[in-house]
Specification:
Number of helices: 5
Number of domains: 2
Shape: globular
Structural class: alpha/beta
Radius of gyration: 20 Å
Strand order of the largest sheet: 5-6-7-8-9
Largest sheet: 5 strands, antiparallel
């Protein structure tokens, strides 16, 4: 690990299954911070100190002041598992919703992709990545560089679940439509008294109006 730190200066020191006590993990951490001033360390060294939590296949119920990331695979395994198909792999809409839910609660999503022996990504996994990428191309502003709002969860007047994020003075609210599994992120600037809407998004205008009447 010292070689990794000295040669590559990783932005994240991500350990797993604890660190041997004979390896002096606190000394390793000190050497890492001295080498990478803005580096961060996960909670899997077997000591009390960490910069973020990393639960597996678990999300949080509310916003965490401490940074965290859910660690999980697209399926039920870390790595390629030929026994996993559509039924064992997270659905595209569920993956999008999972990301939005995590980010709204001050978290990151560490998503494991399991390539086959020749390095190719199985089609069942590729379809999920493409769906998430397509959504992020349109709605990434609600994710990248965002922060949690004063609350993460809400509902519209039509009982559609909503997740909130913010960036600068703008509030992003991402609804989940049960009818068409759409998760379009919308922007409102209540301080300035106006609303930003993506071009051609009639649904966006309806959702912005509904957000003002959120029941939660």
């Amino acid at each position: 690990m010292r070689e990794l730190i000295q040669r590559y200066h990783p932005a994240v020191l991500w350990n797993d299954i604890d660190y041997p006590k004979s390896g002096h993990p606190l000394e390793i951490m000190a050497e890492y911070y001295n080498a990478v001033l803005d580096g961060v360390i996960d909670d899997r060294f077997g000591v009390q100190h960490s910069d973020f939590k990393s639960p597996e296949y678990q999300t949080l119920d509310k916003i965490s002041e401490t940074k965290w990331e859910e660690c999980r695979g697209l399926g039920r395994s870390f790595g390629y598992n030929r026994a996993e198909g559509e039924a064992e792999t997270i659905a595209p809409d569920e993956l999008i919703y999972l990301l939005v839910d995590i980010v709204s609660k001050n978290g990151n999503l560490l998503l494991d992709v399991g390539p086959e022996a020749d390095g190719t990504i199985p089609p069942v996994q590729m379809s999920r990545l493409q769906a998430l990428g397509t959504w992020l191309q349109q709605n990434g502003e609600a994710i990248y560089g965002s922060r949690p709002w004063k609350r993460a969860v809400g509902e519209t007047a039509e009982d559609i679940p909503v997740r909130f994020t913010r960036k600068f003075r703008s509030l992003r609210h991402t609804p989940r439509s049960a009818e068409n599994n759409q998760h379009d992120a919308h922007v409102s600037r209540s301080e300035a008294g106006f609303t930003d809407l993506p071009a051609g998004k009639r649904e966006a205008r309806r959702m912005v109006a509904a957000r003002r009447g959120c029941s939660r």
